[in-house]
Here is the input.
Amino acid sequence: MNTERGIFAAAHISELPQTQVAEKTVRRPSVVVELAEDHVVVTPAGELDIAVQGDLIGAYQHAIALQAEPRIVVDLSRVTFMDSTALGTLVAAVKKVQARGGTVSVVGASDRIASLFHITKLDTVVPLCPEPGEARGVVVDSQ
Here is the structure.
């Protein structure tokens, strides 16, 4: 009896009409690293979360390697979402840059992302600058 039920269920299921299910599109951000005159600009785009952590780590490592005393400006103007993983990745990069005598600043953060920096007090470590020209070489006063 169990066998018949199993066969019936399998045959019945195979007769159901097939429906197309749209594939979930996963958009990985592009991360551009550019060497400017006296600083490096890291520009990620899209949603920054655990799925793209490796891309972010690679971009920050590349940016750090470009200068002996890195001056990095992270342009977040194209970022639509940022979670704690992305914040943690940025903090790790900041520590490496500071260990080499360099600076990291952020420009272009939306109000929503800027509030993350304020809530987590990350803005006391990484300055948020309204304009790219203001971000180069800015150091947060630690006193």
Remarks:
- The chain has one domain: 28-135.
- Residues 28-135 form a domain with the Transcription Regulator spoIIAA fold (CATH 3.30.750.24).
- Strands lie at 31-35, 40-48, 71-75, 78-82, 103-107, 128-129.
